[in-house]
Amino acid sequence: MYEGIVQELIDELGRLPGIGPKSAQRIAFHILQTESFDVSRLASVLVEVREKVRFCEICGNVTQEVTCSICRDPRRDATSICVVEEAKDVVAIERTREFKGFYHVLGGAISPIDGIGPDNLRIRQLMTRLADNTVQEVIIATDPNLEGEATATYLTRLLSSLEIKVTRLASGLPVGGDLEYADEVTLGRAFEGRRTVS
Amino acid sequence: MYEGIVQELIDELGRLPGIGPKSAQRIAFHILQTESFDVSRLASVLVEVREKVRFCEICGNVTQEVTCSICRDPRRDATSICVVEEAKDVVAIERTREFKGFYHVLGGAISPIDGIGPDNLRIRQLMTRLADNTVQEVIIATDPNLEGEATATYLTRLLSSLEIKVTRLASGLPVGGDLEYADEVTLGRAFEGRRTVS
Asked: Closest partner residue to A16 among B30, B44, B64, by Cβ?
């Protein structure tokens, strides 16, 4: 145990995700040896983010305005919506430069164990966005795990009543990986989804 | 890239030791979903630590006063000083409840590659503490790595001119470990330091 405030900082840091007691201690000592000015900046950015950042009223992405920069962009393709679990997935997909449509952030995935059902996700808002028939394709890009698959299945069923094409991101071998190290499920999916090349 | 302030927070967090871009992003999103009150508390503890915590004028340990709680404790044994690299080593040794003397924090170890020589460590202050002949034993508890060993060797030579017993923490097999998994150097040290048990 450290004296007073140092231990308090270690405890506070230890509450952040992915930071154990050892890392918290290491960061606390780093703070002690950092310029006051830099520490103040970190502290003020923390508070500012919490105060100023909110979720886009249309898609649920993070933004400092009422709507996010993607929803405000008139050059995006209004005929397709990509459905993701979290705002960080939007950033990951944007990085690929493959997709030019809009997004819809669910705010998680269906997970009965964690008590998260369809009503806890932004699914109603998605249905409202699809109501005016502008959107012709919904791309479901939830995570390729149990919760993500369950959410994808639920959405596929829900959307099947509408006249909209519903697609799901391909599962398969990660590019740059070794076939022999792929797990059976991934390798199975890669076979299922095989494409004719000539 | 995220919009404005979110990216700024990710960048700031990424400057902390042991936090890569992925962790920084995860923590930033955690902050977005944390109660404002909790975020403000973390921010104010950060600033407070940097403002209030300083280094003990006697031993170099962290403290909020002029001297640390150990140096102020009259029940500690004034005849022995344990020399460590960092304040976190003091906490680790205190946890063992094996040592009742005082500490001396060097503030690092000799490392020519990083440009750290004896003059950059609190060695002069240690010599001053030893001048009045109260201390009868100096226990060198620097890390059992290259820099720590170099520092220990330097200190041993320096202290050999004084009439003081100098000891070094034992190297050997970690308790609870498997002999077959010990590296050669550790196993070698364990042989060297073997004790007669009957």
From this structure: B30
Q: Are the C-beta atoms of residues A82 and A101 closer than 8 Å to each other?
A: yes
Chain B residues touching A86 at Cβ < 8 A: 29
The shortest CB-CB distance from B12 to any of A42, A52, A64 is to A42
Domains within chain A, CATH numbers bracketed: 4-52 (1.10.8.420), 75-168 (3.40.1360.10)
- In tens, the pLDDT along B45-85 reads 999 999 999 899 999 999 999 999 999 999 999 999 999 99
CA distances from A143 to A34, A106, A129, A148 (A): 38, 12, 22, 5
Query: What distance in Å separates the CA atoms of residue B141 and residue B89, rounded to the nearest whole number?
Result: 9
Which chain B residues are within 8 Å of A53, Cβ to Cβ?
Answer: 5-6, 32
* CB proximity list for A197: less than 8 A, separation 6 or greater: none
A13 contacts in B (CB within 8 Å)? Answer: 42
- Tens of pLDDT along B141-168? 999 888 999 999 999 999 998 889 999 8
Kindly report the pTM of this predicted structure.
Answer: 0.75
Which residues fall within 8 angstroms of residue B149, CB to CB, at 6 or more apart? B142
Residue B191 · residue B170 · CB < 8 Å: no
Tell me the longest C-alpha to C-alpha distance in chain A: 70
- Beta strands B77-84 and B101-105 are parallel
Chain A residue with Cα closest to B48: A5
State the Cα–Cα distance between residues B125 and B82, nearest whole angstrom: 14
Q: Is B90 helix (H, G, I), strand (E, B) or coil?
A: helix
Quote the pLDDT of residue A197: 67
Give phi and psi for A11, each to the nearest 5. Answer: -65, -45
Residue A132, helix vs strand vs coil: coil
Which among A25, A36, A64 is the nearest to B88, CB-wise?
A25
ipTM of the complex: 0.76
